Structure of Transcriptional regulator, MarR family:
Amino acid sequence: MTSPRWLDADEQRAWRRFLRMQAELTARLARQLQTESDLSLADFEVLVNLTDVPEGRMRVTELAKLLQWEKSRLSHHFSRMEKRGLVVRENCPSDARGAFVVLTPEGRSAIEAAAPGHVETVRRLMFDGLTSEQVAALTAIANVVLTRIERDATGEPAPADV
């Protein structure tokens, strides 16, 4: 058994700052959405994904994959959103076991009302404090990490420089 490859001081500092930033940003965005639009961050994520596709409809399994949620979590969350009139479920005619989640007019109105305040909060907390070079660096870093995650999930080795 090989010994762990511990993080050095710089890596550990960067990792811990990233974790704190992620937690703080997520908490602030969640509070803003709840306070200003009565949507949870999870509601917003579901609605955003549905507004990104034609007809505002998506297979449940596809949405679960995009959100990185277990199917049971998604099912419970959809039930709560259905009760509030934000989405409906529709059976899939070509697959008796499959279902679609469909954005309702109320769901579209909710996200359209929530989006301006949400994007302003994202801009104020994140992007207003960064230079264009820092935004480009953040994008590049995210691309490298996401590529490594995707390759790791498929068992494909990631080159050291990707």
